[in-house]
Amino acid sequence: MNAYEQLVAIRDRLELNGASEDSIALVEKFIGRAEPERESDMSVTQVMMIRHLLRQREALDSHAIYDDLQELMSEIEARRTVRNDDAARPAWEEEKQPRPKSYYKALKSRDGQEPK
Question: 53, 10 in Cβ contact below 8 A?
Answer without folding.
Answer: yes
